[in-house]
Amino acid sequence: MPFFRLREAIECLKRALIGADPLETSINLKLAKLHNDLEEWAEAAAYHRRVVEVCRANGRVFCLHETMYVPD
């Protein structure tokens, strides 16, 4: 996907979060993946962290399917 399309997708998903259930995780995971694809490690980690926090707070099992690359 071209760079500008990834940016459009990120903005669209951020808008979707505004009205989303506070316990929502799928949009956060999608945002994490898009930022990871753009090699924006801190942003990707922040969205992954949010998913983990929501799952822990609600006693849900979580598994992050995407392996993040963390540069040296």
Q: What is the alpha-carbon Rg in Å?
A: 12 Å
How much helical structure, as a percent, in the residues? 55-70%
* Biggest sheet record: none
The CATH class assignment is: Mainly Alpha
CATH architecture field: Alpha Horseshoe
Shape descriptor reads globular
Unreliably modeled segments: 66-72
C-alpha end-to-end distance: 26 Å
How do the SSEs run, as a string of H and E? Answer: HHH
Q: What percent strand? A: under 5%
Q: What's the rounded overall pLDDT mean?
A: 86
Domain module count: 1
Number of strands: 0
Count of helix runs? 3
Structural class: mainly alpha
Structure description:
The protein has helices spanning 3-18, 26-37, 41-57. The protein is mainly alpha-helical. The longest helix is centred in the C-terminal third of the chain and has 17 residues, at 41-57. Helix 1 packs antiparallel against helix 2 and helix 2 (26-37) runs antiparallel to helix 3 (41-57). Mean pLDDT is 86; it is low at 66-72. It has one domain: Serine Threonine Protein Phosphatase 5, Tetratricopeptide repeat (Alpha Horseshoe), CATH 1.25.40. The radius of gyration is 12 Å and the shape is globular.
